Amino acid sequence: MNRPATPVLETRRLSVTYGRRCALQPTDLAVWPGEAVAIVGRNGSGKSSLLRALCGIEPAARGEVVLHAESCHHTARTVEVAYVPQRSEARWDLPFSVGQVVAAGRIRNRWWRRGSRGDRDAVDTALAAVGLGDLGDRAVSELSGGQAQRVLLARALVQQPDVLLMDEPLAGLDLETVDTVLALIQRLTGRDLAVCCVLHEVDIARGSFSRVVALSGGVVVADGPAASVLDADGIESIFLRRVAV
Amino acid sequence: MEPFEYDFMVRAAVATIAVCIAAPACGVWALSRRLVYLTDAMSHGMLAGVAGAAIIGGSLLVGGLIAALAMALFISLLVVRARVPEDGAIGVVGQGLFALGVIGVSLQSEPRALAHVLFGNPLTVSRFDVIVDVAVVVIVIGTLAVMKPALLATTFDAVHARTVGMRVGLIDSALLVVLSMTVVAGLVTVGVLMAVTLIVAPAVTARMLGRSLNAMFAIAVASGLMAGVVGLLVSYHAGLPTGPTVALLAVAQVGVAALWAHPARASRRSLIPDRASAAAH
Fold this sequence. Notes:
The structure holds two protein chains of two kinds.
Chain A: E1 9-18, E2 21-31, E3 36-41, H1 47-54, E4 62-67, E5 70-71, E6 81-84, H2 98-103, H3 117-129, H4 145-157, E7 163-167, H5 175-190, E8 194-198, H6 202-208, E9 211-216, E10 219-225, H7 226-229, H8 232-239
Parallel strand pairs in A: 3-8, 3-9, 6-7, 7-8
Antiparallel strand pairs in A: 1-2, 1-4, 4-5, 9-10
Chain B: H1 7-32, H2 36-56, H3 60-81, H4 86-106, H5 113-119, H6 127-156, H7 158-163, H8 168-189, H9 191-209, H10 213-238, H11 242-271
Helix pairs in contact in B: 1-6, 1-8, 1-9, 1-10, 2-3, 2-4, 2-8, 2-9, 3-4, 3-8, 5-9, 6-8, 8-9, 9-10, 9-11, 10-11
């Protein structure tokens, strides 16, 4: 595959600490447009810390995040990097409409501004892209788990980002919905969007992602094509158990 | 409409209506953002500022706001510096300022002042109080309207809101200032303690009955207005204290809404089996 000259997102010696505990050791990583990157590892390996530092939720202890070859001053807190959190982080019990939630992705830092016609069109387009075009007025409290995941995806897409960062987007979904979300990711990478997903589903990471970054103890221990990183030996070294591949 | 032949009743009605619009509108966000305990503690803690302002002859509104801001500062210091759990910090600071306020009020020459501040008396509302209350309701409703998209985004998912550049702390602070203003505005009519009831109870009613955010606002304000106007008339005719009567009516509506909403929601849930699987939320 021909890669563009510059990656869309980079980390340079990026590290994250919580108090005295170092969750992510200094890490160099580069993501190119159109890549589907699965970030895997055991619990506490630093996957979510890496993802959250990439989108600016966690401040970098050292190092920096670089977007389009320009420093983000230790944070990529910009609409060009869209974050899709775990579903449990949001308030699904409230009677907000799907359209209102997705529109939150367009607020940016001008929160006092009323939504324009362009914003409303972008919301409609994003909802249609995730297959929820007819649910704009539905309350989020009435959605299924799969629909909720797609709402979060639409909220990210409405930002018209270059990079999509997703934290365990497949957790708790049934097989049919998993297929839907994976097909969406594939479509997005086909449009040169870079997608990075924290995943626990090793088989899906191996089968549906072009590249796998594996972490252990806050260190990147493997980075490469999915099939080679997640072969039997690779899985054993990352997850400390042997499985048939 | 005999009561409204008296000027003091007209002033009481206007002031009560103003508070009964502002308080439930704030309450929708306070309830949605799980700020009820903080609002309750703030209403207690503001007594210190109100009492201090009364002693030096200053504005009760300004005094109450200063106390609310001081409370927010003390809570932040305890939570961030001393690692005290947030609810513990809210309880300690709120009760500490409340105790200070009770002492401050007791130092005043008028012995009934404390009961007046705690429970209010709309029949003593002055023309100036009415102007302040109407100004507050305009500011509160205007602020909430302008901030609606930001409040919605940060309430649904504060972490995501930060990633798109929103200053969540600033929005939290703005909401707390608006809540503080509402509690102080309710001071003369229903008292600082009952003002919290007018913030919370109509919002709870609306939460049970409303299917959308706009519906919640409409139901909350309607519930607050009903409690305010009916409570004022009932208290006038029955000779009851107005603040508690208004508060009781607001709470009674919660009971009615619970009876009405419970079976309706249960049957709706059964029609949406997939919702149970949304436990993964």
